[in-house]
TrEMBL record:
Keywords: G-protein coupled receptor, Membrane, Receptor, Transducer, Transmembrane, Transmembrane helix. It is found in: Membrane. Its main location: membrane. Residues 33-201 form the G-protein coupled receptors family 1 profile domain. SUPFAM superfamilies: Family A G protein-coupled receptor-like. The chain crosses the membrane at residues 20-42, 54-76, 92-113, 134-154. The lineage of its organism: Eukaryota, Metazoa, Spiralia, Lophotrochozoa, Mollusca. GO terms for cellular component: plasma membrane. It is a multi-pass membrane protein. This is G-protein coupled receptors family 1 profile domain-containing protein. One of its GO terms (molecular function) is G protein-coupled receptor activity.
């Protein structure tokens, strides 16, 4: 790697240091908070109730999304112009998409359960254990299916600075794919996830 590119990357990384500190705090809080929720629900067996069944699953999905997305963000901040591992980039985007989608889907299911409780109707039928388990499998499969295109759209791409006359590599959307279609499929999983979390907060 060119020494000038390394110095360029170091300068960018220093500017992004506050963001990295926030991501580290976010990762610690997310891990401890969601881990405590999972431990509490499993030990007290609250998850066996229909309306609380999906909460440990949501916490688990949140925990992994927190670890994957935060660590991904930190690595990106530290390698803004030196990320030349396309396979790792594709893999990270896939898992970021999968964990984010899975967490989002669990939020939707729990919100739907709360809506049914607030607006009771004769047509509302309680979900038995087999249906709940089937829902868990269906959500995981749906998240996996929707995340499969991620490696196709993202990878290590050239990144240039005209002023410095330098060219590096960054993990970003590939230039040779359909930009419109990539935006429709999944633009920024971290931002979408955080926006949805704010809506339900």
């Amino acid at each position: 790697m060119n020494a000038s590119v390394l110095l360029w990357n170091e300068g960018i990384a220093m500017k992004l240091l506050p963001n990295n500190l926030i991501l580290i705090v976010y990762m610690i809080i997310g891990f401890c908070g969601n881990g405590f929720v999972i431990f509490t629900y499993l030990c007290s067996k609250l998850w066996q109730e229909e309306e609380r069944y999906f909460i440990p699953y949501l916490s688990a999905a949140d925990l992994f999304a927190c670890l994957v997305c935060a660590s991904f963000g930190i690595i990106l901040n530290l390698n803004q112009v030196t990320f030349d591992d396309s396979v790792l980039c594709k893999t990270w985007w896939f898992f970021a998409g999968f964990t984010t989608l899975l967490s989002t889907f669990y939020l939707v299911v729990i919100a739907f359960q709360r809506l049914r409780k607030l607006c009771p109707s004769e047509r509302n039928v309680a979900m038995d254990l087999s249906r709940r388990r089937l829902t868990v499998i269906f959500l995981a499969a749906g998240s996996l299916f929707l995340s499969l295109p991620m490696p196709y759209f993202y990878g290590s791409v050239p990144f240039s600075d005209v002023r410095r006359n330098l060219t590096g590599q960054r993990c970003s959307r590939l230039y040779d794919v359909n930009r419109t279609f990539s935006l429709i499929v999944f633009r920024k999983p971290i931002n979408h996830y955080m926006h949805l979390r704010k809506c339900f907060a």
